Predict the 3D structure of the following.
Amino acid sequence: MPKLSRYNHLQPWTEGYYIAYNAGSGALALMTTENRAVYDTLAAKLAAGPQPELTEKENELLGQLKYGRFAFDDDHDEREAMQFRHNMDRYDQTTLALIIAPTMACNMACPYCYESNKQGRMSAETVEALIGFVEKRAPGLQGINTTWYGGEPMLALDIIEDLSKSFMDIGKESKTAYTSSLISNGYLMTPEIVDRLVEWQVGSVQVTIDGPARLHNVKRPLKNGRPSFETIIQNIAHAVTKMKVSVRVNIDKTFDRDIIVELLGELKTAGLHDKIGLYFGLIEPSATVCSNIAESCYETADFSKVETEYYRLLLEYGFRIDKLPAPSSTYCMAQMTNSFLIDPKGELYRCFNYVGDAAQSMGNIRNDINYQHENFRRLFAFDPFHEPHCYDCNLLPVCMGGCPSRRGDRGLSGDQMCESWKHNLQPMLEIIARSRQAQQQQRAAAAAKENL
Ligand code: SF4
Ligand code: SF4
């Protein structure tokens, strides 16, 4: 007997339509009000017992639902399949993901940043040891992925060059795909440097902007006190022609609607509205990050309210909306055995919150990986399929139990752990559907113009 997915979400949209979303597959579709009524009778019949007598319309809808993974045959247990994928990816040894901080130094002095007072640059000896670390693991790998991180990684471009070239060579020799990305404050990412990054297979960059120019220049000042906003925007305007650029705007309680409107206006004037993926990030008062500004940080439930409001503004101002409730097999690298953060000394970490804090290291690239190390096990141990609150959650495929550090280190539990999707799924789905509709209309208008 067929069955409906436990991860279906249906909600009214414009007159005559419902939005149908499935958290297990990420499918998003429009359903007519008529089909919504058929869905209800179908659901009731399937729940009533085996061998239901379905009408032609119910059978037709069932076929469409199966196609979009909103329904399955009886022999498929979607939660069990998801748990299997989760475990496969936790223990996957075919992809090596490294987030590498070639330096902890930074050219900015943001008040919430845990790295601001840290120094240290990767020595030539550590560079060699890191190449050896990757070489040793390359046989048997299908993919090597690096993310350059810091500090500000652009301050150690020579190290990125050395390591990138070596990793690209290792990838060629072992027939392993090599991909790379970058997290940068964007100030030093000049057109010449972007061209070099592209040569080193850096395909995407994430840049943080903390508000419109007048606020960003205060919140993210250069160490020498000079403003950075204008240079960053110029750099992004070039970077979007060469690589995928996402812009993170860190949100705390000092932001309001007018500030976001001002920022969006400035980005639109720079012609970036349809070229970047802008998203809003929650700054959290974790053990080390943001502890000095904890009072201005949101908890997720409150963040989700302003997040929805700000996404509405993105839509209104014609920005692309990239944020989607997409399914993922794990929440983050802390749940995976072959993903590591590496600091300039070659120390291995499990979480962005702790990079550079030697007491939180789980070992060093020069030694064998110790999966019994307390700093590995502490964050790895959490399994959302063993947490009743999450096991029965209809957003489990998207959230996977949330940030392990929030749970294990901050001691949050229950709804405090939930991602903002849990609080704002309905309005966000509406915004995403409207954004897709606007994009379709733009494409249709462009096609019609071409045919004139
Ligand atoms: S444990 Fe949480 S803070 Fe740490 S890397 Fe994962 S998601 Fe980020
Ligand atoms: S943390 Fe919340 S939203 Fe995430 S899976 Fe668990 S119950 Fe669901």
The pocket of iron/sulfur cluster (ligand 2) is lined by residues 384, 389-390, 393, 395-396, 399, 401-402, 417-419, 422 (CB under 6 Å). The chain has two domains: 1-76, 92-452. The mean pLDDT is 93.
